[in-house]
Amino acid sequence: MADHGRRVLLLSNSTQAGRDYLAHAAAPIRAHFPAGGRIAFVPYALHDWDRYTAKAAAGLGALGYQVTGVHTGDPAAVVAEADGVFVGGGNTFRLTDAVYRTGLLDVLRRRVAAGLPYMGASAGTVLAGPSIRTTNDMPIVQPPSFTALGLVGFQINPHYVGGGIAPGHMGETREQRLAEYLEENAVPVVGLPEGSWITALGGTVTLGGTRDGVLFARGADPAPLPLGSDLAALETAPRAGEPRGPEC
C-alpha cells in the first residue's frame, strides 16, 4: 500500500500538442513543488541525458524552478539536496533498468515516503505504480525486475487512447492489451489520457486535467472515470482473483 505521507503528481504526458514542454500542467506543477525549489531530474528514460536535462531545465525554469540532473553527480546526493524530484518520460524499460543499476529506486522510495514531492510523466508515471507491466513501450533493455516504486496502489497506462484502430489493421487495441494484463494480474489499471494527471496527497488520490480516464478491473467492463474522481478506493479494494504468477 502506498505511503500516506506522499506528495505525488503523475502526468500522462510532458508535452501537449501545440504547447511548450510542461506548459499544459503549469498549474498543478506550481501547486506541487515549492516556489523556486530545486528539482532533481531523472533523465534515464532517454539516451541523451544532458540534452534531456536541458529540456527539463528550460520547461521547469519557465515556472521558476532550478533543475539538476541526477546523472551530474551521485544520484542519491542530488536527490537529498532537492526540494522535489521529476522523473521524465521515454522508454520505461530503460528507465527502470537505470534506477535499479544506480540504486535510485530505493532512494526515491525512501525519500518520497519521507515527504519529498515526486512528479512523473509518461514512463516516470508508470514507474510510480506497483509494476511497469502496463507501459506502452518495447522492452529495449531487460531490467532486473518489473517491480516499480509503488507510490500509488494501482497501475497506470499513460497516453491512453480508446476506440478502434485503422481499418484493416489486425493488431490489438489498447483495451485488448489491458484486458490481457488483467487475465494475468489482479491490480486495476487507470487509463490516463493525454492532458490529464493523477494527484496523490496523503490518502487522497484525484484525477485531474482535461479528459476523463478509464478504469480497467478484472471481472468488470471498462468504466469511465470522470475528472475529479476519487481514486483512493482503488488502492484498498479487494482484488478480483489472484494473479497466476507473482506481481512483481
TrEMBL record:
Keyword annotations from UniProtKB, A to Z: Hydrolase, Protease, Serine protease
Entry superkingdom: Bacteria
InterPro entries: Class_I_gatase-like, Peptidase_S51
Molecular function as annotated in GO: serine-type peptidase activity
One GO term (biological process): proteolysis
Pfam families xrefs: Peptidase_S51
Family that this chain belongs to: Belongs to the peptidase S51 family.
Protein name: Dipeptidase PepE
